[in-house]
Amino acid sequence: xxxxxxxxxxxxxxxxxxxxxxxxxxxxxxxxxxxxxxxxxxxxxxxxxxxxxxxxxxxxxxxxxxxxxxxxxxxxxxxxxxxxxxxxxxxxxxxxxxxxxxxxxxxxxxxx
Length: 112
Description:
Blueprint: E1 2-7, E2 12-17, H1 23-28, E3 34-39, E4 43-48, E5 59-62, E6 69-70, E7 73-78, E8 84-85, H2 91-97, E9 98-101, H3 103-109
Antiparallel strand pairs: 1-2, 1-7, 3-4, 4-7, 5-6, 5-9, 7-8
């Protein structure tokens, strides 16, 4: 199924294929554990739960969520039963919602 990968290291947001197997999320976002962040009411970000522990963390903000997020994220939609589906947000609109933030700014503002 279609998904979107937010990569703050490359400052990119791209379409990717997601198999539907949760184990593939680990590979796509380069992590050992992940957490889920809901945004815009319809979609979910799967983020690296240990992103702050990595060397040279990179951050981004997304409209609809009040805190900076660290590391790569996978965007998927969620149906009424909680199952993953293709994102409801378009790639064009997602790109308008994401702001990449330098780590020094996050540290200086005391977010982490």
